[in-house]
Sequence to fold (433 residues):
Amino acid sequence: MEQYIIKGGKPLVGEVTIGGAKNAALGVIAAAIMTDEPVKLHNLPDISDVDILLKGIEALGAVVERPNVHEARMMGGSITTCIASYDDLRKIRGSYYLCGAMLGKYKRAEVPLPGGCNIGSRPIDQHIKGFEALGAKVVIQHGMIIAEAEKLVGAHIYFDCSSVGATINVMMAACMAEGQTVLENAAKEPHVVEVANFLNSLGANIKGAGTDVIRISGVSSLHGSTYSIIPDQIEAGTFMLAAAATRGDVLIKNVIPKHLEAVSAKLVEIGAEVEEFDDAVRVVASKRLVHTNIKTLPYPGFPTDMQQVMATVLCIAEGTSIVTETIYENRFMYVDELTRMGASMRVVEGNSAVIEGVDKLTGAIVRALDLRCGAALVVAGLMADGYTTVEHIEYVERGYEKFVNKMCELGAAIEKVDSEDAKAIQKFKLRVG
Ligand code: EPU
Fold:
């Protein structure tokens, strides 16, 4: 089993370039099958979730070529089935976008109920409500969501909660429905805007993405396009927080600073310096950080996907911090892992963690329990005294491209090793001292 071994205590210094956004890429890749013409996608992140989705699309009969890891050339014209493969696609969350895409284009889709990180119950009732409002019949059978319609007709749909997935999925189906659809209480996350922009580049007619009302005029067919994915705000935020946590100085390049405002504001509040450029941010911290309170909210609020890394940084900030999670019911499983490293943290009322800042964390063997938990434990390892081993790194590799290489280029002492390879572990320890 592969794991990360980290020797903490070194400040991160230098420059890092952020890759394409995972959650935007998954929506765009699924939407790309809605045209029969060729689509070229650039700036894809080199992560396992993207590979799994592309393989699943190839299995539908689409042509998928990868000239390099950051590029895909796709052609949906050769798709022969609307039944997505159960075994692979059920492992990732983004596979459910194939439901909206195939329902819109073929008026039929059979897609596995989505997997993804175990961060609490993740219902899809709002997706189903939207598909049904457009005229589809939706059933769940044998682990598959089966949606079909004679025809789709535009509708006025009010989402009961702000859901990135439901907004994107229903938006895709509505693109090829007859007439106008209005989505109210739509999610405003950058990846919703990104999928809308991509669909518009294929000839769709979507207005208002990025606000809570999206208006879609259906079209009968879509055409080819060449498109480049936006940078990943969560990868960028992770490096920003890691820079501050290690009292480092890092220029994070290829970002959209507007998407990072919630993280930048909190970093400034806890005593780091954040300098914004057109497409980069520099984070510097030279003294002990101080406490703050965090509440996760839909965009433009503080992102739930940054909650675990932010809480980790607050573990060594002076004073008491309170972190409240309002999006997911079970995103505090990492608290026990950080406690092994000497953090003083307790969960109260199920959705808040109270953190008493300690002077330092100490290295330990810890386990990634989901993607962002894994990233948080790496940051904890970088801050801690001594050696930290992070197990189950397959979670981290679902969403962070070349995480170890990027950290090493900033001066971190971290290596991916096989847990059975005692020599490699010994060699790492000798090298980093
Ligand atoms: N919700 C419902 N019913 C629905 C859909 C959602 O009640 O039909 C609830 C969820 O239970 C949750 C809230 O609405 O409480 C928000 O869920 P949302 O649908 O926005 O999340 P998602 O689409 O399943 C995406 C990202 C997540 C990210 C969230 C929030 C992808 C593949 N996943 O999930 O990313 O946390 O939006 O921004 O885009 C991650 O990258 O680590 C990750 C978990």
Notes: Residues 233-245 form the longest helix (13 residues). The mean pLDDT is 95. The CA atoms of residues 337 and 366 lie 6 Å apart. The first strand starts at residue 2 and ends at 7.
